[in-house]
Design a protein that fits this description.
By secondary structure, this protein is mainly beta. It has a single domain, classed as Beta Barrel (Porin), CATH 2.40.160. About 5% of the residues lie in helices and about 55% in strands. It has two helices and 24 strands. It has a 16-stranded antiparallel beta barrel. A hairpin with a 5-residue loop joins β22 and β23. The longest helix is centred in the N-terminal third of the chain and has 23 residues.
Length: about 450
């Protein structure tokens, strides 16, 4: 019996050995390693590693719904409007031996109806595009915008970015005020000195601005006092605008001093000879932001002042025309050529901006902001009116804007708010009335106008 058991066990062992040897000769089917998405903490919340790379990616965006009502100036104009906007942000960063390599993209799609789609009606876009009355009710319009697209490599910024001239760039509120707020194509170098201090030199192409307010302005067909219409054209620039800024960011807040110098070429054909103008333009701005945690966490105050000579876009004034309600279609130009002397006379202006943010509770805040601006032209607008024995003069607008809102954030990333805005515009000489009942006022002219607007905004940032 023992002999039989030994033979059986020996046979089984042999079979197992042969089977094991054959199995070793079969091809392996080991599963490929799975690469899971890893969180990247080097650049803040929301970043993760792109699989197979050492680059960190963050995808974010915004959806905004907005509803507005306001002053109606004629029977041909809507008194309300709606807006829907979607925004997508893509932020990719990689740490290199030369510093952080960053690529950022922001793209927006917007649908406007009613007073938003009119494109030229204040106070809904008073600081954004060409104001003034639009004849006929507006319809729906959809637009797309490449808002930002830049590469940062160490101290270098290249592409479409916020101008380094800007400080308070409409950081608060639903509506724009008269201030520098520009996204332009640029090439910049930033040097950091420690303790929050930095300095930047930037070459900026202002003709690439996101809307009229970012452009430096242009020369148009204008009139000079006692002379008459003079055909004037812009001849372009020999180099982009050069911007320099000195900035400090510390626990108490931040401050910045920025300046710009540029060149414009103008020409006009007079009855006797052709006169060319090659003019230097400049602008300067100073701003400070003061954190006020002693009032409430997140509270802050912004103060800013700016002056421009021949470059009104750096104050937030758009080239082309301007107006407020019944006042509209008046020429806004950076310069005029004197047909007697042939000299280029730059338009000048200055602006003041103030803004305050206060948190009543961690989820309820208010924002109050406003601007005051004055501009002096060197020409007489064709719509200026002389009456009562007085001679028509340059328009020289003075504008005051103030707004306040109340915003509730019940959950993180969601804002539900209402805002009320008041605008007032004065012009130095009477101009024609663009309202529907303008027969009498066109004879006498008007010198000032007021507007009131209200908005409801629901916005989700993710």
């Amino acid at each position: 019996m023992k002999l039989v058991k030994s033979l059986l066990l020996g046979s089984a062992a042999g079979i197992a050995a042969v089977a094991g040897a054959q199995a070793a000769d079969l091809p392996s089917r080991k599963a490929a390693p799975v690469e899971y998405v890893r969180v990247c903490t080097a650049y803040g919340a929301g970043f993760f590693y792109i699989p197979g790379t050492d680059s960190c990616l963050r995808i974010s965006g915004r959806v905004r719904a907005e509803y507005a009502v306001g002053t109606r100036y004629s029977d041909f104009q809507d008194a309300y409007g709606t807006r829907a906007r979607g925004r997508l942000n893509v932020d990719v960063r990689t740490q290199t031996a030369y510093g952080t390599l960053r690529t950022f993209l922001r793209y927006e799609l917007t649908n406007n109806t009613g007073i938003y789609a009119a494109g030229g009606v204040t106070p809904f876009n008073v600081g954004a595009t060409i104001p003034g009355l639009v004849r006929g009710p507006s319809s729906s319009s959809t637009s797309s915008l490449l808002d930002l697209a830049f590469v940062q490599f160490g101290p270098i910024t290249a592409g479409r970015a916020q101008s380094f001239f800007d400080f308070y760039a409409n950081d608060l509120g639903f509506n724009s005020v008269r201030t520098a707020d520009s996204r332009v194509n640029l090439l910049a170098y930033t040097a950091t000195f420690g303790s929050g201090f930095s300095a930047t030199i930037s070459a900026e192409d202002r003709t690439s601005g996101t809307s009229g307010r970012e452009l430096p302005g242009a020369i148009f067909n204008v009139a000079t006092p006692l002379v008459g219409a003079v055909g004037v054209t812009a001849q372009g620039q020999d180099f982009p605008d050069l911007v320099a800024s000195l900035r400090v960011d510390q626990g108490w807040g931040s401050a910045q001093l920025s300046g710009m110098v540029g060149q414009r070429s103008y020409a006009t054909a007079l009855s006797t000879t052709a006169v060319n103008g090659d003019e230097m333009v400049w602008a300067i701005q100073g701003g400070v932001k003061i954190n006020l945690p002693m009032l409430a966490a997140g509270d802050a105050l912004w103060l800013q002042a700016a002056y421009a000579d021949g470059a009104l876009g750096y104050l937030g004034w758009s080239p082309g025309s301007f107006g407020l309600g019944r006042i509209g279609a008046l020429t806004l130009a950076d310069a005029a050529i004197n047909p007697i002397t042939g000299n280029v006379d730059n338009s000048t202006g200055w602006s003041l901006v103030a803004a305050f943010r206060h948190f009543w509770t961690p989820t309820l805040r208010s924002e109050i902001f406003g601007s005051y601006s004055e501009v002096k032209f060197k020409y007489l607008d064709a719509n200026a009116i002389a009456f009562g024995g007085l001679t028509a003069r340059s328009a020289d607008p003075k504008e005051f804007i103030i707004a306040a809102n109340l915003i509730w954030s019940p959950v993180s990333g969601l804002d539900i708010g209402v805002e009320v805005l008041y605008s007032h515009l004065d012009v130095r000489t009477p101009v024609g009335d663009l309202s529907n009942n303008a027969v009498r006022n066109n004879l006498l002219g008007i010198k000032s106008d007021d507007t009131v607007a209200g908005r409801l905004r629901i916005q989700r940032d993710f």
